[in-house]
Amino acid sequence: MMGLGMPELLIIILIIVVLFGARRIPEVAKGLGEGIRHFKTGMRGDEPRELDDRKYRDDDRKYREEDRVRRDDERREGPRPA
């Protein structure tokens, strides 16, 4: 059975720093995270953009309804003091 201990992890981190450089490690980590996220959403079968669009569309509809109700109230009662 092969496990990763502290010395092995340090060697792996050192190799990554040598290969990519300290400045590029955050970029590589971000790309890796995005890749994993895309893979997971692809496995689930839902597109994150569709979910975001649906969420924002529902929020926009809610805010437009609240604004319409406020305007109707102002027309009936006159403007509210600030």
Highlighted features:
82 residues, mainly alpha, 3 helices, 79% helix, elongated
Describe what you observe in this structure.
The chain contains three helices and no strands. 79% of the residues lie in helices and 0% in strands. It has 82 residues and is an all-alpha fold.
Short description:
This protein has 82 residues and is mainly α. Helices cover 79% and strands 0% of the residues.
Q: Report the total helices.
A: 3
User: Which geometry do the CA atoms define?
Assistant: elongated
From N to C, what is the helix and strand string? HHH
Q: How much is the average pLDDT?
A: 77
| Quantity of strands, as a count | 0
What is the strand and helix layout of this fold?
Elements: H1 6-20, H2 25-44, H3 48-77
